[in-house]
Amino acid sequence: MSTALDRWAPYALAILRIVTALLFMEHGTQKLFGFPAPPQGGTPPLFSLFGIGAVLELAGGLLVLLGLFTRPVAFVLAGEMAVAYWMFHAPQSPYPALNGGDAAVLFCFVFLLLVFTGPGAWSLDREERRTERRHSWER
Predict the structure, then answer these.
(1) What Å distances lie between residue 128 and 68, 120, 133, 135, CA to CA?
(2) Separation of alpha carbons 12 and 2, rounded Å
């Protein structure tokens, strides 16, 4: 049975990557464009800590969504979420359920997983590897 499930693992990983990226990008669009709704304090200045975070969330989320440069981008985004948690959430309470940091913790660890596993199926990283292998046979 495990071999039947193992065959689907790259696709399950890709679905996790895609859904995570879409949710992450939503945080960036909210901070940058006020969509789907403006953040509580209004949209932050672009060259502020929140503004830079928003750019990372949107651009990094898009790269993860496409599965392009997945490992290094996921490493940066995991770091961003760790910093966000310890700077903004943890000082309020040691409990993520009380400090609102649940999403930051989950994003951090999903991105960390992608650093080690890669993007899974349906990614531009994977297509690039296939193309490189195909061209190496032609030499």
Answers:
(1) 9, 13, 9, 11
(2) 14
Angstrom distance (rounded) from CA 98 to CA 42: 23
- What are the C-alpha distances in Å from 102 to residues 47, 93, 134, 135? 26, 12, 43, 44
Tell me the pLDDT tens digit for each residue of 59-110.
Answer: 999 999 999 999 999 999 999 999 999 999 999 999 999 999 999 999 999 9
CA–CA dist 102, 92 (Å, integer)? 13
Q: Residue 44 corresponds to which amino acid? A: P
- Whether this prediction's pTM lies above 0.85 is answered by yes
**How far is residue 45's CA from residue 127's CA, in Å, rounded to a whole number?**
37
How deeply is 15 buried, as exposed, middle or buried, from its count of CB atoms within 10 A (0-12, 13-18, 19+)?
A: middle
Query: What would the two tokens of residue 43 be?
Result: 């949209």
Q: Please, are residues 69 and 111 in contact by the beta-carbon 8 Å criterion?
A: no
DSSP structural state of residue 44: P
